[in-house]
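Exercise 7b. Backbone tokens:
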């Protein structure tokens, strides 16, 4: 996909409102459709996907939630799977059918052996790792699931008191009880098994220390 095409056609395909449904009170799905806050939610996904080099043969989304990202991933890969601790595939699959696509979705823990080693050439984890205090086991699992030179796309928000207040302003109270790991810690732990091959943040014109959201593309080190 050329840079010109990417600039003209958004990589993040926001489904029509009402196709997908929030999988719980903390699901951010409604915010994607709000006029002001929604632009930030959509921009973080678009920016993350811009780091990729499609097409991919096999993609895994870690934490597919409401399923809102799955249509975009289907446009970037031949086969898309997803695993989520809470989301019920029986509720997501009919939504995907409305769009004429299908994915292999599993409700469970990615560590439970649902997938064979070296099954994927891309794993996507958007707004997942900030909820995990010890990233070493999950990153080791990601390394095992990726094929040689496979890639891991990670998106994480800023984690500090400023963001706690910012999330509170849009309706998420006590966000720091849920966000326990920042992107710097993720980079540090990932460096044991991955090389960082892409990095960007929002707002992109500001220095990284002013960033509100960070997108990182890692490549499996053999």
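Sequence design result:
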């Amino acid at each position: 996909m050329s840079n010109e095409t990417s600039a003209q056609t958004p990589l993040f395909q926001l489904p029509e409102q009402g196709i997908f449904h929030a999988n719980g009170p903390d699901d951010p799905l409604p915010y994607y459709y709000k006029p002001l806050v929604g632009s930030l939610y959509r921009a973080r996904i678009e920016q993350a996907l811009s780091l990729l080099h499609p097409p991919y043969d096999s993609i895994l989304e870690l934490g597919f939630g409401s399923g809102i990202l799955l249509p975009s991933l289907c446009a970037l890969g031949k086969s898309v799977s997803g695993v989520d601790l809470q989301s019920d595939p029986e509720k997501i699959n009919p939504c995907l059918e409305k769009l004429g696509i299908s994915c292999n979705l599993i409700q469970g823990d990615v560590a439970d052996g649902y997938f064979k080693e070296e099954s994927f050439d891309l794993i996507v984890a958007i707004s997942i790792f900030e909820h995990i205090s010890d990233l070493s086991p999950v990153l080791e699992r990601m390394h095992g699931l990726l094929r040689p030179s496979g890639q891991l796309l990670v998106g994480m928000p800023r984690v500090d008191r400023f963001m706690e207040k910012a999330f509170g302003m849009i309706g998420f109270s006590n966000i720091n009880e849920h966000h326990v790991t920042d992107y710097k810690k993720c980079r540090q732990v990932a460096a044991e098994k991955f090389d960082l091959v892409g990095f960007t943040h929002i707002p992109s014109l500001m220095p990284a220390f002013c960033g509100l959201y960070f997108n990182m593309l890692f490549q499996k080190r053999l």
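Instructor comment: The longest helix spans residues 37-49. DSSP finds seven helices and seven strands in the chain.
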